[in-house]
Give the backbone structure.
Amino acid sequence: MNVYLDMVGCRLNQGELEAFATQFRSAGHRLVDHPGQADLVVVNTCTVTSEAASDSRQKIRQASRAGAREIVVTGCWSTLQPEQAASLPGVSRVVSNDAKDSLVAQTLGLPQEAFDLDPVIREPVPGARLRTRAFIKVQDGCDNRCTFCITTIARGASRSRTVAAVVRDIHSALAGGAREIVLTGVHLGSWGYDFSPAMHLVDLVRSILANTNTERLRLSSLEPWDLDERFFRLWEDSRLCRHLHLPLQSGSEKILKRMARKTRPDSFRGLVNAARMCIPQVAITSDIIVGFPGEEEEDFQESLEYIRHLDLAGGHVFTYSPRPGTAAARYPRQIPMQVRKERNSRMREALKQAALKYRLQFLGQTMPVLWESAQGVGPNGWQLSGLTDNYLRVSAEAPSDKWNQITPVHLDRLAPEGVVGSFLEE
């Protein structure tokens, strides 16, 4: 059977998709890079914003129009709206998040134990999702109750995968050619809290570094209240990528309280300073929500000035999107959409300038780059794009294909979204 996998949303969804791919392949099925070639399509949906929910529905409709014979839908949007998902054209099965780990077994009519034996090599998902990095799910769910977040409802309580299971997946990914491992979860920093005795993400990272030969280990989004200086000392091992994505959501103390976030501007600033003391030239990025209910202009200005002085390496700005079932959707003083969009533009400009300032300090340096894409040979050779360990996007031309290689590159000049580099003479 030919299987096509697609998704909307976060790195956790990507990690789950890669796990599905491994299981389908171990059962003898073939992964294809277009839904029109598929007997079965699996779509992993998202509902973090209204746009993500809309994109999820569009993915399903596209698969149906392409001629997919059967569509299985899972993920956060379909978990919250199972009847709507089931009514879309071509959908034969809706698998909720709490049953997602057994999706392949359910779909193929096999016992889950069939996938608990010797795993096959974990390879990238074909097509647009062909990657040099492997996304490894280590945790799911969240016990926080941020008032804007629908993911807690869709994903359920926090639960961790064992060290042994994570290390096994990493060995499989490395055997498949992955050069970088990315740990993912809904609330990654809570890994191990549900064990008895409890463990900490520090323990998992140390085990991975000690028991695998991964060249690069990257951590996805981390809530700031889970971290301390002890955690940052892990970066004494140079295989840990110097990039921390720490969602703040607002630089206004009043708005953070309304969001029920467990951090405040002063403590967040202290955490950032501690990270910079321990990890030289670390890239710290964040998420910011603008237009949250009750955010007056002075609250937004407070948040904007805070971000301007934090010297981040970049980040994402989200226009507040009320999600049914969340506390914030019921709050009074919802901000007009025109005001939300205008604030989004101003905050994005602040983060754009911060990212530019961060990139400038690396011009003239030589840094190793993992090349994630290589376009065919042209008049100037191969057109490459890749990432440094501190998440600088680098483009360069090379006389040979260097896809999935880590090579030193001289960083010459700025590009609109990254840096242009050149190779040392070969």
User: Anything to note?
Assistant: The two ends are 45 Å apart (CA to CA).
